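User: Let's play a game. I give you a shape written as C-alpha cells, and you guess the letters that built it. Ready? Here's round one.
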C-alpha cells in the first residue's frame, strides 16, 4: 500500500488520540473508587448481619424482661390480696397463719424475680451498647460510601468530558486521511492491542521497541517514501521521518 508521507505522519496524531482514548477507558475501568466501593459493600453487608444479630439480642432481652415484669405484677397483686385478708383478720387462725406463710413465700418469689429482672436489664444495657456501636459503624461506612461515590462520579464526568474532546478531534482527522490507510490502521490496531502506527526512530520500531536488522534497514531505506512499511516483527506501521536513522 502507498500513501502520502504526510498522511503517514498524521497517522501518528491519530494514534496519539486513540492511545489517549484507550488510556481513558482503562482509567475508567480501574478507578480505585470501584474497588473501595466493593470493599465498602462487603463491609456494610457484614455490619448489617451484625446489626441484625445485635437487634435480635436486644429484642429477646426485652421480651424476657416484659415476661418477668408480668410475673412480678402477678406476685404483687397476690401479695396485696393476701395482705388485705390478713389485715382484716377475718377467718380461722390456721387460715391466717397460712396467709402469713404464703406472704413470706411470695416476698421471696418477688425478690427472686426482681433480681432476675435486674440482671436482664444489665444484660440489655450491654446489648444495647453493642447495637448502638454497630449502628454507628454502619452510619460511618454509609457516609464513606457516599463520599467515594461522589468522588467516582466527578472523576467519571471528567473522563467522559475528555473522551468527548478526544473523539471530536479524532473524527475530522480520520476523515481527512486516505480511507484505505485508515482501514489498514484500524485493522492493525484491533489485532495489536491498540497500537497500530509508531515512529521509526534511530533504526528501532516504536511499536515493539526492537532494533531493525541491517537488511531490514536497507529494504526500508530503498523503499518509495510513499510506501507504507511495516515492522517484520510486530507488523505495525512504521512511520519514517528524519529521526528514523536510515
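Assistant: Ready! My guess for every position:
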Amino acid at each position: 500500500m502507498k500513501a502520502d508521507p504526510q498522511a503517514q505522519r498524521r497517522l501518528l496524531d491519530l494514534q496519539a488520540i486513540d492511545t489517549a482514548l484507550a488510556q481513558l477507558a482503562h482509567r475508567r475501568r480501574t478507578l480505585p473508587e470501584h474497588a473501595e466501593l466493593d470493599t465498602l459493600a462487603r463491609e456494610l453487608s457484614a455490619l448489617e448481619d451484625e446489626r441484625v444479630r445485635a437487634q435480635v439480642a436486644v429484642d429477646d432481652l426485652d421480651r424476657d424482661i416484659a415476661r418477668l415484669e408480668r410475673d412480678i405484677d402477678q406476685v404483687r397483686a397476690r401479695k396485696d390480696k393476701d395482705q388485705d385478708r390478713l389485715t382484716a383478720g377475718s377467718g380461722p387462725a390456721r387460715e391466717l397463719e397460712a396467709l402469713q406463710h404464703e406472704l413470706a413465700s411470695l416476698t421471696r418469689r418477688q425478690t427472686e424475680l426482681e433480681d432476675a429482672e435486674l440482671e436482664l436489664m444489665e444484660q440489655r444495657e450491654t446489648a444495647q451498647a453493642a447495637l448502638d456501636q454497630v449502628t454507628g459503624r454502619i452510619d460511618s461506612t454509609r457516609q464513606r460510601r457516599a463520599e467515594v461515590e461522589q468522588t467516582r462520579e466527578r472523576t467519571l464526568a471528567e473522563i467522559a468530558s475528555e473522551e468527548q474532546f478526544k473523539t471530536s478531534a479524532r473524527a475530522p482527522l480520520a476523515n481527512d486521511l486516505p480511507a484505505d490507510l485508515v482501514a489498514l490502521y484500524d485493522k492493525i490496531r484491533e489485532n495489536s492491542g491498540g497500537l497500530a502506527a509508531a515512529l521509526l526512530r534511530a533504526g528501532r520500531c516504536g511499536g515493539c521497541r526492537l532494533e531493525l536488522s541491517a537488511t531490514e534497514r536497507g529494504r526500508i531505506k530503498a523503499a518509495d517514501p510513499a510506501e507504507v512499511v511495516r515492522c517484520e516483527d510486530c507488523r505495525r506501521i512504521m512511520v519514517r521521518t528524519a529521526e528514523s536513522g536510515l
